[in-house]
Give the backbone structure.
Amino acid sequence: MPRGRAAVKPLFIGHDIFRRSTYGGRHPLAIPRVSACIDLCRALGWIDPDRYIVSPQATHEQLLRFHDADYLDALQSVEAGAALTPEMKARYNIGINGNPVFAEIFSRPATACGATLHAVEALREPGVIYSPAGGTHHGRPAQASGFCYLNDPVLGILAFLDQGVERLLYIDIDAHHCDAVQDALAGDPRVRILSVHEDGRWPRTGALRDDGGGTVFNVPVPAGFHDDDMALLLDELILPVAESFRPQVVILQGGADALAEDPLARLDLSNNAHWSVVRAVTGMADRVLVTGGGGYNPWSVARCWAGAWATIDGRDIPDRLPAEAEDLLRNITWQRSAGRNPPGHWFTTLRDAPRNGPITPAVREAVTVLRPRLASI
Ligand SMILES: [Zn+2]
């Protein structure tokens, strides 16, 4: 374990806006995620009050570090009740393409950004911070994209660089490629980006040989990518990248949509694989931020992210959940067909059964192609 870390207990950053606010209707994000994770952790007795931070909302000034003023003004005016004109729709990609207008269209994403920026400030000291609301990796400077209105990972990375950080490793295990993070930061010699994402899935960027000018490791993986594939990537690529680069700071975007039960992707991980990456990143640097990201099955997300916090905080995950936690999971409803008759283990356990298999050839090929680049970082 890196020097100085053992004495500092991890922090959890959340906010109740993620309980009140919803994208509405039949949107994939019309489900409880952050609030369900927090409630589950609380039911398990895993959140000490003195280590739970209520997220501030990022200020206009803070957001200007990456986002354009006119776009921020538009989000704020729409939240205040201004009509959304066809020009604004087209220009800012809001009210269309999966980026709906909803009551907290500015304050909700600004709170996720506030959480990340608060974490960056707190991580001037060694520590590990968990912010499941973060991870909105598709947000563009002046446009919403892929359900993301603002981009907290980019703002967080820029804030660390502004502090003087010289080696930052951003790892992204969301099923979707971190297109906007790569576009904003590829080529900056202070940053390495490593993304594992489903090949061919929206936004269809992040090809294996797209190295972002030498600073990006893209690992597109096929449908069916399973726990043993992730274990291979962790041992033969992700950990070696960290060992070569010796990051001062690591950010993990921990989207839960690479899990087998997610409705928007076709990867096949169990949450054990997700947690093995979480465990690994906590040992990669003195300063570590773990965020959420995608994840569209409310039970999978709540169980995965609660277990991620347990992993960060060194808590034992019980084989069978206590009654209060089980009740909480039983009270979640989901409009999709899989939500009508959920399997019992979604209520009674956190830990999935492992999903093993022979190593997928494309995964081995990715390691073969990318490993030689370690020598140059
Ligand atoms: Zn995603």
Summary: The domain at 11-376 is CATH 3.40.800.20 (Arginase; Chain A). The chain is about 35% helix and 10% strand. The first helix runs from residue 17 to 20.
